[in-house]
Specification:
Elements: E1 9-15, H1 18-32, E2 38-44, H2 55-60, E3 68-69, H3 77-95, E4 99-103, H4 107-118, E5 122-126, H5 138-149, E6 152-155, H6 158-166, E7 174-176, H7 180-195, H8 197-200, E8 209-211, H9 216-219, H10 222-235, E9 241-244, H11 247-253, E10 265-267, H12 272-281, E11 284-287, H13 290-299, E12 302-305, H14 313-317, E13 321-323, H15 328-340, H16 356-366
Parallel strand pairs: 1-2, 1-4, 2-3, 4-5, 5-6, 6-7, 8-9, 8-11, 9-10, 11-12, 12-13
This protein binds uridine-diphosphate-N-acetylglucosamine and uridine-5'-diphosphate.
């Protein structure tokens, strides 16, 4: 443990995309409350930049304004990662942090980890060890690279520890801290519930479905997207379907648009509090999001995932999440089957307890 006479640790926390903001919020809060131990510096890579994909999360989650904006923006994977690397290298030179903390599995995560490690700055990965074992997923490559280079691997669950050990990573680099996304959920759930966002839609609680979709494998091919959307329009005949649309999906929905689509209740991407409010009140969530699978499990909301694999298998083992692939014949029957089942119980996963960010901070202090 560090002596109290030592100066606070300068920790650069990097975030770039929507799920990152939810993950860094509790970490920054815990560090901000311990100025004797931490001097946090927040870098926003700019991977996501729309108000609904970025600013609203800073407001809803009370994240401090970033100290540095890298403005990486959209592009191919190489372009996006390269822009993060070039801009971050400069900022690392200026700030000279003792630690860099990266979260999740987006391009910004991988680019920041590689850049920091090459500057010989100790780097920690929060949400380390998750594996879908599907290398066609861009995030899987980001996870493997990030975990291979980072000094400290902070994992959310036991399966993640096992994955890392199987890859030959020494035990000493792995610390299980739990799930920081659940810290945010735990903290903001009362405010989200108080919004009763379903009422604004003229809906009753547990009488609607919430859908999100943005994985390239589901939305980039027009045929795949059309099949999923067609199954959703089918189900919308039985129960209202709310569909806040991710910008990647919005761009690809236009050519699919037809008069049947009007049965779906589309909206722009929602702010965190409004989304969590709707998620907590939903009868069922249909998604291909990583974070939404976890949040649904924690809340005890049935979740059907439009994927063949998940890097979050605990959500499936606990019985709250079912992988239904994206095969067209499976979707509408799987949804109807799920709607006929009783509601699941909220899912208690060890260390998904609202204190994960405290364990992240404590781990950094312990090894510094
Ligand atoms: C990225 C992550 C994905 C994560 C998702 C969270 C990678 C490889 N992918 O996917 O793991 O699940 O974020 O939402 O890092 N766009 C806008 N406004 C924005 C941001 C993006 O219009 O604020 C549009 C652009 O056309 C852009 C497209 O969305 O080309 C995709 O954005 P990008 O960040 O490359 O990937 P996501 O699909 O968002
Ligand atoms: N989310 C949100 N508004 C939306 C959709 C999702 O606030 O319209 C939140 C969701 O609750 C979770 C996070 O965004 O906290 C997940 O982000 P996303 O699905 O984009 O990324 P993934 O987790 O798949 O990487």
């Amino acid at each position: 443990m560090r002596s109290p006479a030592v100066k606070p640790l300068k920790v650069m926390v990097v975030a770039g995309a929507r799920p990152d903001f939810v993950k860094v919020a509790p970490i920054l809060k815990v560090m901000g409350a311990q100025p004797e131990h931490f001097l946090p510096v927040l870098v926003h890579t700019g991977q996501h930049y729309d108000n609904e994909m970025s600013d609203v999360f800073f407001r809803d989650l009370a994240v401090p304004q970033p100290d540095h904006l890298l403005g990486a923006g959209s592009g191919t994977h190489a372009e996006q990662a390269a822009r993060v690397m070039v801009a971050l290298e400069r900022v690392l030179g200026m700030e000279a942090p003792q630690w860099v903390v990266v979260v999740g599995d987006v391009n910004s995560t991988m680019a920041a980890a590689v850049t920091a490690v090459k500057k010989s700055i100790r780097t920690a990965h929060v949400e380390a060890g998750l594996r879908s074992y599907d290398r066609t997923m861009p995030e899987e490559i980001n996870r493997i690279v990030t975990d291979a280079v980072c000094d400290l691997l902070l994992t959310p669950s036991e399966d993640a520890d096992r994955n890392l050990r199987r890859e030959g990573i020494p035990k000493a680099r792995i610390v299980r801290v739990g799930n920081v996304m659940i810290d945010s959920l735990n903290e903001h759930l009362p405010a989200a519930r108080a919004l009763r966002a379903w009422e604004k839609q003229g809906l009753d609680e547990k009488a609607y479905v919430l859908a999100t979709l943005h994985r390239p494998s589901n939305v980039d091919e027009a045929d795949n997207l059309a099949r999923i959307v067609s199954a959703l329009t089918d189900v919308a005949g039985d129960i209202p379907v709310l569909f806040p649309v991710h910008p990647r999906t919005a761009a690809r929905l236009k050519p699919v648009a037809n008069s049947r689509l009007s049965v779906l209740r589309f909206s722009a991407p929602l702010g965190y509090l409004e989304f969590i409010s709707l998620l907590s009140g939903a009868r069922l969530v249909l998604t291909d999001s990583g974070g939404v699978q976890e949040e649904a499990s924690f809340l005890g909301v049935s979740c059907l995932t439009f994927r063949d694999s998940t890097e979050r298998p605990v959500t499936v083992w606990r019985g709250t999440n079912t992988l239904m692939g994206s095969g067209p014949a499976r979707i509408a029957p799987a949804i109807r089957e799920q709607l006929a089942r009783p509601l699941p119980k909220p899912c208690a996963i060890p260390l998904w307890d609202g204190h994960s960010a405290e364990r992240v901070a404590a781990s950094l202090l312990r090894v510094s």
